[in-house]
Design goal:
alpha/beta, Glucose Oxidase, domain 1, Rossmann fold, 10-stranded mixed β-sheet, 7-stranded mixed barrel, 10 helices, 19 strands, about 25% helix, about 30% strand
Length: about 350
């Protein structure tokens, strides 16, 4: 155990609001878009989710770190958040799988944390005013506010190029060959495909349709990832060129990319959907599923071509949660069918995709 070196720290919002607390983890400074997540567990999966790149993560659940961290509960090779802002930090975790405390884990990854915050007040502010940029720092708040205003906004940064693999790689062997376009893929997506007997090959987000078709896959998946899909126009072009050639599944950012390839528009949500308790209705079966979500952009209803229809809706705000093509094997979802640690209601989406792939192949 490395030990906690607490120090005075501040979370500064771009509107000038200052929340003071105690710094833990790495004694460094960070900035990013401040977002909240309503899940009660899964902080290590959240921390390592590439979709949180460029963001300061604020869980609404007050206690974090109580079951420690380990090498297994990760969604990528490193912590992806810019900083972790919480109410209470547990210094003495209790779990048989725990290897490092949350503090030691953040120190090892060079990520700052700040505890002792009124996370309820911050969440209410974000809900009323919308997401905004923020900074975790130990310096004078007045100086920090001035500096923060000069930093680039979240939406102006191409974050996918920061999290996507640079080279293609094989994840698993199997009977069905699935190409995964890595816009910030989570390990559990790859695991869900692998346990369904798929040979999974992962490609950079810059890969062309020719790069993908060269390996003769049976289907292609466009992965989740961070940021505004307008920065992924080359990936949109790839998706457009693969329509009609391969069965396609798009998840989260991948859903937005495929939607744009089909002619739809996307827009930024006021404060996004992030948590493990979002109700989504399958409009075909009328069943309601509890879903995990992590996105700040959505697909607009206006502009959807007639050959595409909405298959799922969010029951909180009515936003699009899924699309299907009337004649091509294309399925997209805005939520996370691979959610880890859960909810596990939605893994059936992978089964639907596999059935599409088998039908097309045979």
């Amino acid at each position: 155990m490395l030990g906690i070196l607490l120090h005075k720290a501040h979370l500064i919002l771009s509107d000038g609001t200052v929340f003071s607390g105690e710094g833990f983890g790495s004694q460094s400074e960070a900035f990013g878009e401040v977002v909240f997540n309503t899940s009660m567990t899964g902080y290590q999966e959240m921390l390592t989710d590439p979709s949180y790149a460029g963001q300061i993560l604020l869980p609404t659940y007050p206690l974090q770190g109580n079951y420690g961290t380990n090498k297994e509960s990760v969604e990528s090779a490193k912590v992806q958040v810019s900083a972790f802002a919480i109410k209470e930090h547990s210094e003495f975790p209790s779990h048989y799988d725990s290897e490092l405390t949350l503090n030691d884990y953040l120190v090892s990854q060079g990520i700052p944390g700040i505890a002792g915050l009124d996370t309820r007040a911050i969440t209410k502010r974000i809900r009323s005013e919308g997401v905004m940029m923020g900074m975790v720092t130990s310096e004078d708040p007045k100086l920090a506010v001035s500096r923060l205003k000069k930093l680039p906004s979240y939406g102006s940064i191409n974050l996918v190029e920061q999290v996507s693999t640079q080279q293609p790689y094989k994840w698993s062997d199997g009977e069905l060959s699935i190409a995964v376009i890595d816009c910030g893929v989570k390990f559990n997506i790859l695991n869900e495909l692998a346990k369904r007997g798929c040979s999974v090959n992962v490609y950079p987000f810059t890969s062309t349709s020719s790069d993908i078709l060269k390996s003769n896959p049976d289907g292609v998946l466009f992965s989740p990832g961070p940021g505004d899909p307008i920065h992924c126009e080359s990936t949109v072009s790839t998706a457009k060129n693969l329509i009609g050639k391969l069965p396609i599944l798009g998840i989260c950012l991948g859903h937005q990319i495929v939607a744009r390839a089909l002619g739809a528009e996307t827009y930024k949500l006021k404060f996004g959907h992030r948590g493990g308790n979002h109700p989504v209705q399958d409009l075909e079966t009328k069943k309601v599923y509890i879903t995990a979500q992590n996105h700040g952009y959505a697909v607009a209803d206006s502009g959807l071509p007639p050959e595409v229809y909405v298959s799922h809706r969010n029951l909180n705000d009515g936003t699009i949660e899924g699309l299907k093509h009337r004649s091509e094997p294309i399925l997209t979802i805005q939520y996370h069918s691979e959610a880890s640690p859960g909810p596990l209601d939605n893994s059936y989406i992978f089964d639907e995709f596999i059935q599409m792939v088998i039908k097309k192949r045979d």
